[in-house]
Amino acid sequence: MIRKPMIYALLLGTALGAMSLEASAQTLRFASQSDALTLDPHAQNEGPTITLAQQIHDPLIIRDDEMGIREGLAVSWETVEPTLWEFKLREGVKFHDGSDFTAEDAAFSLERARVPPSDYRNYISSISEVRVVDDYTLHIETSAPNPILPQQLTNIVMMSKAWAEEHGVEQAQNYAEGEENYAVRNAMGTGAFKLESRAPDERTVLVRNDDYWDADNIPMEVERVVFTPIASAATRVAALLSGELDLILYPPVQDLQRLEQSPDIQVKSTPENRTIFLGLNQGADDLDSDSVEGQNPLADKRVREAINLAIDVDAIQRVVMRGQSVPAGSIAPIYITGYQEEFDQRPDRDLDRARELLAEAGYEDGFSIDFACPNDRYNNDEAICQAVVGMLGQAGIEANLRAQTRSLHFQQLQNGELDFYMLGWGVPTFDSEYIFNFLYHTNDGERGSWNMTGFSNERMDELVQAMSGETDLDARDELIAEAWEIALDDLTYIPLHHEVLNWAMQANVDIPIRADNSPRFAHVTFD
Amino acid sequence: MLAFIVRRVLQSIIVMLVVALVSFSLFNFVGDPINNMVGQETTQQQREQLREELGLNDPFAVQFARFVGNAVQGNFGISYRLARPVDVVIAERLPATLELAFVSALFALVVGVATGVYTALNRSGIISRVIMTISLIGVSLPTFLIGILLIWVFAVQLQWLPSFGRGDVVDLGGWRTGFLTSSGLKALILPAITLGLFQLTLIMRLVRAEMLEVLRTDYIKFARARGLPDRAINFGHALKNTLVPVITITGLQLGSIIAFSIITETVFQWPGVGLLFINAIQFVDIPLMAAYLVLIALFFVVINLLVDLLYYAVDPRLRFDASTARGH
After folding, report:
1. Do B190 and B117 share a structural domain?
2. The predicted structure's pLDDT at residue A17
3. How many CB pairs under 8 A join A and B?
4. Considering the domain boundaries, does residue B2 fall inside one?
5. A235, B267: Cβ pair inside 8 Å?
6. Which domain holds residue B212?
7. Quick one: closest CA in B to A33, which residue?
8. Distance in angstroms (rounded) separating the CA atoms of residues B290 and A239
9. Interchain CB distance below 8 Å, B54 and A234
10. Portion of chain A with pLDDT greater than 70, in percent
């Protein structure tokens, strides 16, 4: 008696579901954890914001799906002098309003991105001047030779100068001003999609730009994109399973197996451009948060080595991450210039050796220290830290876990209050210099702003400064290699793993997964 | 009566000031918004400059005074996360929450009173026992679990109802309503049940208990002895006399429905103020958090005031007492 209506219900349900799928064949319904903060492409250097901006706008140089670079709105670039780059721009590109894209727009956009309050001003701080030579030639002057300028420009998208002037948005959003800027909810670019409507946190609709300059080379099958941020991971997965969504980011690790088993769903994975590691304050004379009086155990390299040997990253990968991580031997993500496989080898866990090293350093009875972790920033961050606490305990180091929300964790880290902490680092330039510059250079207020370890090495500083100006790429590679040797020898950071990212989608939807976790909707194909 | 209202309004202002003060002092423990507002390349000096510009370095008292001073003029500042004026954002998102709260409260009240009366009148019936058992689930299961369960059954397995969002909305001069489209109405069902279920069981149990109490009283017995029809006794006399506590609870719960819609809104990605608040907490969006908490305090005091006034309408004894008290 109960069975029959249930069956009808199911039949009706599937019929309805099938109908709605049919009707929306060329619409991509996409959901991620959080929304873009703003549509202003220069106001926030932040993942979801970049993802949305890159659908509507194009950069001069495009980061392709394999994380290499290719021509975007620029067709060629070369250094005329060590500090002068010449960019030839693509002709015949039109903005969504029908106007032509010219060097004026490019110069305006670069200028907008490099001055306050743009959030990219530090990212492209090497640019000192941008000059328009003719309609399709641009000269970019840098304050010092900058070999990775093309890499950096992949994140700077082009706006229309006329549009910006018309709407009074010649500058990026300024928080301190206390006013809303037109560009926060409106956007107009040269990209593969035009903005149809935008309700922040609710729904953003994009429609295909049929006149896109690159339309012949990419699939362009998606006519409409409906982007809904869905904060709750369980709801995101449920909506994918029920057929209400076509593509989701951040499917929770514990649901992956079930999603993979479903015949209607496929999951794609790739190592992410981010590495998770532990930082150790080796610079202080004495630590506040440890049990050792009068000296700093972390300043002794043998202690850092012992910590490294005590942590079983393979077990973390297996148990905590359910296979969704790649154990790391250095803090360099695998995509970047200067990455070498031999650096990425981790020594096997060796508890006896760890205890020996501790004893040699004078800590045969171990010591205790506070261990700070975010609990809402990286995949399973708190669980990783709990595992680390147990492993260190076996070696005699009593780590007192202080897991807290990211806004507190990073505040304390920036204030230099943490002696032993977790951090993840992504490399938007895909180049080692970005790591050395922020994490290994002496923290002098200018460079080394995320080096909270107190590590300071004269040779390292020399190398960092040299590599940022070295235009001979072979010579530069040597500088980078030498810097990595110093870094690895010092064990400034204890590497844990490279994160793995997953995208889940309907079986009839296909999109190349990108290590920067930023899908390009124009590359989607439907079966 | 007028004096009563004036007194209550003054009390309300004090309550809201206290709420603002408490919430402001709590913001110190939420962390630093700056890290969320700038890219990782930003230097210490630039961070410090932004902190200075936003007035985050000022002493607590100065920050609080500035907030109150601006709020009195209707200026709640600009959201750190959305880069838009806080009052505009809240006004945009409030209709979603109010519509959801209204439907939930209506659902809870209608079904709650009906089942409450039914279970009181048919105490030992099988259906009553089933209802009472089910109501235990409503009281004891946490909201997010109920939401996920409903999504699993009705969205994933049966695919009858949407699992997230508000469906299509119609803009009526700034008030975006989901009542006028079929997808909007369908989207309301699951969140409304999730949000209203706890209130429903509460009202039902309350009505049932009050009814049982009243049905034992002498005047009901006399009414029966006079041969009045059951319907007149049950609804005209018994139910009416149970209404005072029910109104109190329902009224107070309406405030809770609005305030606790946070969880339901998060589970269903319902674009109301609750979801806005959760996002604000994660981002340490201080202007938005402050405005939201003051708004919720306002809801509570207004609802309390209305409930007190409703007593006068429902319970003639209060009117009588008040007038005699003034006479002497």
Report:
1. yes
2. 43
3. 165
4. yes
5. yes
6. 92-279
7. B269
8. 33
9. no
10. 94
Residue A354 lies in a domain: yes
Beta carbons of A321 and A253 less than 8 angstroms apart? yes
pLDDT of residue A7: 45
In a domain, B196, yes or no: yes
Residues of A whose CB is below 8 A from B151 = 234-235, 238
| CA–CA dist A298, A307 (Å, integer) | 10
Closest Cα in chain A to B39:
A45
CA A514-A173-B71 angle, to 5 degrees, is: 125
Dihedral pair phi/psi, residue A327, rounded to 5°:
-55, 140
CB spacing of B155 vs A45 below 8 angstroms: no
Instruction: Report if residue A484 sits inside a domain.
Output: yes
Give A414's contacts in chain B (Cβ within 8 Å): 32, 35, 44, 47
CATH number of the structural domain spanning residue A132: 3.90.76.10
Position B318 confidence tier, pLDDT thresholds 50, 70, 90: low
- Confidence (pLDDT) at A381: 92
B65 lies in the same domain as B114: no
Q: Which residue in A231, A407, A450 is closest to B30 by CB distance? A: A407
Average pLDDT over residues A381-399: 95
pTM above 0.90?
no
How far is C-alpha B141 from the chain's CA centre? 19
Interface predicted TM-score of the whole assembly (ipTM), two decimals: 0.85
Q: Are residues B26 and B47 in the same domain?
A: yes
For chain A, how many structural domains are there in total?
A: 2
Domain total for chain B? 2
- Any CB–CB contact under 8 A between B276 and chain A? yes
Q: Which tokens go with B183?
A: 């997808």
**Cβ proximity of A88 and A72 under 8 Å:** no
pLDDT at A221 over 50: yes
B87 within a domain of the structure (yes/no): no
Q: HSE, CB side, 13 Å, CA atoms: give it for residue A1.
A: 0
**Which among A38, A228, A410 has CB closest to B269?**
A228
Identify whether residues B51 and B71 lie together within a single domain: yes
Would you place residue A175 in the very low, low, confident or very high pLDDT band (cuts 50, 70, 90)?
low
pLDDT tens figures, B213-236: 888 888 888 888 888 888 888 887
User: Does residue A182 sit in the same domain as residue A284?
Assistant: no
User: What residues of chain B, 41 to 70, have a C-beta less than 8 Å from chain A?
Assistant: 41-47, 50, 53-54
Token code pair at residue B191: 């969140």
Answer yes or no: is A171 within a domain.
yes
- Residue range of the domain that includes A373: 271-500
